Each structure stands twice: as structure tokens, then as C-alpha cells.
Amino acid sequence: MNGIKKRQTVSFLAGLACFFLLWQLGAWLTGSAIILPGPLPVVKKLASLLKTEKFLPALASSTFRLLLGLAVSVPLGTLAGLVSAIDKRADAFLRPFFSVIAATPVMSVILIAFLAFGSEKTPVFTAFLMVFPVIAANTAAGVKAVDPGLAELFKVYGLGGKEKLRYLYIPSLLPYLAAGLHSGLSLGWKVVVAAEVLVQPLSALGTGMQMAKAQLETPELFAWTAATVIAAALSDILLKLLSLLLVRKKKSFRGGTAVFSQVRKEGPSHS
User: Fold this and answer.
1) In this structure, are residues 208 and 54 in contact, taking their beta carbons and an 8 Å threshold?
2) Domain that residue 96 falls in
3) Which of 23, 90, 223, 228 sits between 20 and 30 A of 52, alpha carbons compared?
4) What is the DSSP letter of 204?
5) How many domains does the chain have?
6) What pTM does this model have?
7) Distance between CA atoms of 40 and 79, rounded to whole angstroms?
8) Any idea what the CATH number is for the domain that residue 108 is in?
9) Cα–Cα distance between 17 and 12 in angstroms, integer?
């Protein structure tokens, strides 16, 4: 196992080195820092950007907007996915909403939301609207992946909805929900920053990008972009660690035998 991890680490570092080499080659061929600055000028600009008074407030504001969007979309998306997977009528009712959201361009969502909510709330609403169907779809897939035989055992022994939810549906959907959170987090960063670039809140990563672009400060534009990529990568690492903790916590309930044995010990619900 350690040998596999070492080879993966070496491959990752080799890919990273290749990326920077290609970037530097592109900068040499372009011959213009306004069009494509090299890695070194961008790193220097990023280092100086980190020391400015505007950077930390911008990072904090963008992160807060993302978290607020996720705080709304994750529970609502999980609930919608759970209901739509269990009840076919609810699935038919929600399907037009998901279809419209999936077909609507992100830029249109941002512009329409800007008219309704203003520059500060538009990134939050956009993140919610884009992440919500991702969480719902993954939750529904997790519920549908439940073993039909195990579900039938729950039904035969007259176990109530509480036991089904705790020991049948939740262990099944956790890996799917973790995958949905991973996709939703990446998508959330993209749509939040895209909305910020377009509507320009007072303090935001996207506003910094737009200001740098307007002033033809391409190295600074790349520096803001690099800061966003690093922030998204760090948040993704934290999410993966949290997902591992949650999956390990429910691991003992994943197997059908373990689940059913635990439920039989507790007994059926009388509610």
C-alpha cells in the first residue's frame, strides 16, 4: 500500500512539474506578460497580494457566500432527493424544477438573480441553485441503491420509518452524499466567483479578478485565480477528511447482516 501511495505521489509531482513547464513554455512563446505571464511573476504577485489589506476580507467574504449557499442547498437537496427517491409522485413533481435548473445557463441565473437580490446576495443564491440539484440527484441515487432484499426484511418485520432511515437509507446514501458534496463544493466555488466577477460585490475574490482585468494587470489576475484555486483545494481536502470520518462512523452499519442484527436488537418502532 505504501508503495502504491509513493508511486501516486511521484506521479502527482511529475504532473505538477509538467503543468508548470508547459505554462512557462507558453509564456515564452507568447512573449507578453499582458497575455500570459509566467509562473514566477504570478507567484511573486500572489505573495504580495497576500500582504494587502483587501485580500483576507475578499477571501473571507467569498468563503462565507459559498458556505451560506451550501448551508441552504445541502439540507434542502438531501430532503428533496430522499423524498423523490421514496415517492414517485414527489419525483414527478420535482422533475420539472430540476430540468429547468439544469438547462438554464449560469450567466442567465446570475443576471436574473442580480435584479432580484443585488450584488451581495447574488453569489449565494447562484451557489444554492446550482448545488441543490447535484445534492438531490446524489441523494436519490444513494436511496435507490438500497438492497431490495434488505428493504423487504424491514417491511416483513414491521420496522418503522425511523429504523429504515437510520439503518437502511442513511448508510446507503452516505457515500453518494459525500460524492455530491465534493462535486457541489467544486461547482460552488466556480459559480460564486463567476457571480462575483459579474456583479462585483464590495469585497470578493471575483471582484479582485475583475479589477485586475480592467487594469490589464494580468499577473494580478492570475494571482487572484491562484488564490481561489488554493482555497478551493484546501476546502476540498477538509471535506474529504470529514467524509472519511462520517463513512467510518457508519461503516459498521453498511453490511446488510450488521444492519438487520442491530435493528432487531433495538426492536421495531411503535411510533
Assistant:
1) yes
2) 42-266
3) 23
4) -
5) 1
6) 0.82
7) 47
8) 1.10.3720.10
9) 9
